[in-house]
Amino acid sequence: MLKKKSAEDFSRRAPEKGSEFNKEIVNGTEVQKHLENKTAKNYARALDLWYGYAQDHPGADPYVLETLKGFVRTMAYGIDGAYGDPKAGEKTVLQYWKDFTAGWRMAEAKHHYSFRHDPFRHQCWYSFIKDPLRKELGLAHRERIRSYGTTNHFIHLETQLWGKDWQIYDKPRVRADAWAKIQLYVFTSARVGEYFESTCRAGSGRGLYDCVSILRRTR
Q1: Measured between alpha carbons, how far is 75 from 88 in angstroms, rounded to an integer?
Q2: CA 20, 21, 24, 29: dihedral to nearest 10 degrees?
Q3: pTM of the full structure
Q4: Percent of the chain at pLDDT exceeding 70
């Protein structure tokens, strides 16, 4: 049986392996996760909305509940509807709010955020948007009509892969495998994101077993 390592052993071994050298990563800066380009743009858009609101309302403090309610209300009024409905969707307003809070925290962290009282964590925000704000603006509560690929898209993709794609693959079966995966996307009700990497999470590797592009297998 291996001898149990004592705390003194760890304390001695760490400096011997160089723990006291090159300590650049040890600092007081909060480490943030990498953002996808789309997410970063959404955060920047939400922050721009806040900066515009603060400019129109001198003295606006994002740590005052009343100020934030006014900001969310103004933001909701400014969001355009979709699919012939001029009113913003409830979930759209919630998403804008999430983008703002996440973007604000990340921006503050870069300036040594002090972790003072954070009204962003207040559970009242969902209730505020879903109850009084929704009633005032008549926010659309139902799911919007989604835009999915049609049968025509599927046929064009098949024609491209089998009739107009002159890519020479490493193995003949790659084309057949790629088409099988595309059909899986089209016809299955399973969570294919556990097996295929979405372009929305490029490079994430979350639940990834096989990475493919639309026409060419990459891994």
Answers
A1: 10
A2: 0
A3: 0.58
A4: 74
